[in-house]
Design goal:
Elements lengths: L1 E4 L5 E4 L9 H10 L8 E4 L18 H27 L6 E4 L2 E4 L5 E3 H10 L12 E3 L11 E10 L6 E11 L6 H20 L30 E5 L17 H18 L13 H14 L1
Parallel strand pairs: 2-3, 9-10
Antiparallel strand pairs: 1-2, 1-7, 4-5, 5-6, 8-9
Length: 301
């Protein structure tokens, strides 16, 4: 990972990887939270065009611990270099320099110099400590040794109308351990979307072909997609236990919503039908399929 500041005070992150969706925001939020570079300064170069240094492919949350660790290491190198320049500008000892909110300050005084001024000096080659090269760029690599995995618990409550086979979701609760959560809004959104995807596969979604191999569910006129009124409110909670496998303690979010939603929703449907002796049902558990199963169970009773 390469991290640096341009002469117009933009923070550039460079690597041969793509930022899918909004997960790249996690990197900038974490760096901004450290009290260093304002969020609006950041710009990502995803094609390695700045230095052409390769990074691993996009892994979303699973790669966050590795990529963010490398970013933090590179950014710390930038802060160290910039602090030395700030000390030179203000004629102070490097140990007395503090950096926060884009400003370098001499500890215990009101004397300060902005990040913009430090960067300007760095590119102009002015006020540089002896032997320091112009510019403001750093490279860092972090090699993750052990992957991290989230864990959680899903609870789904449903009611089924025995006359129509319609399933109504009454309540859905999920508690996940994603380790350190950098962006709660994105994490909750990811869980919501994953749960909707998993529930949709159990209750609605199905591809149907005729005997000639013609797809009959080729549009949303025929394909059952889950909609907002198919769900209850989701209660999403976190029981965060930071992992020791990366410096941030983060774990992936990714498929956590989906993989938990499928078995718990199917189990809820089967549990609701179990008083009738129904122990098995194929996906999707559509109203027609449930209604037929109920009629068969009653006729065999």
């Amino acid at each position: 990972m390469d991290f640096g500041l341009t002469d117009d005070q933009q923070a550039i992150v460079d690597g041969v990887t793509a930022t899918i969706g909004r997960f790249g925001d996690d990197y900038w939020l974490e760096r901004d939270r450290d009290g260093g570079f304002p969020h609006e300064f950041y710009r990502t170069v995803a094609d390695g065009g700045w230095l052409g240094i390769a990074m691993p492919e996009e892994f979303g949350g699973a790669g966050l611990g590795v990529t963010e660790a490398a970013l933090m290491m590179a950014a710390d190198k930038i802060v160290e270099k910039a602090s030395r320049i700030a000390a030179q500008i203000m004629e102070a000892a490097i140990d007395d320099i503090e950096f926060a909110d884009g400003t370098f300050t001499i500890a215990g005084t009101d004397r300060s110099v902005s990040l913009a001024e430090v960067v300007s000096n760095a590119f102009a080659g002015a006020n540089l400590p002896e032997g320091m090269e112009p510019g403001m760029m750093a490279h860092a690599a972090y090699h993750g040794k052990v992957p991290s995995y989230p864990n959680g618990c899903h609870i789904c409550e449903v009611e089924i109308d025995p006359e129509t086979g319609v399933v109504e979701m009454m309540n859905y609760v999920v508690v996940d351990d994603f380790g350190t959560i950098l962006n709660p809004l994105l994490v909750h959104g990811q869980v919501h979307g994953g749960v909707a995807q998993g529930v949709g596969q159990i209750l609605l979604e199905n591809t149907v072909y005729d005997g000639d191999g013609q797809l009959l569910t080729a549009s949303f006129m025929d394909y059952g997609m889950p909609r907002a009124d198919d769900f209850s409110n989701f209660e999403v909670k976190a029981n965060s236990v930071p992992t020791a496998t990366n410096p941030l303690g983060v774990k992936g979010v990714g498929e956590a919503g989906c993989v938990g939603a499928m078995p718990v929703t199917m189990n809820a449907v089967i549990d609701a039908l179990s008083p009738l002796g129904i122990r098995d049902l194929d996906m999707p558990t559509s109203p027609a399929r449930i209604w037929a199963a109920i009629r068969e169970a009653k006729s065999n009773a």
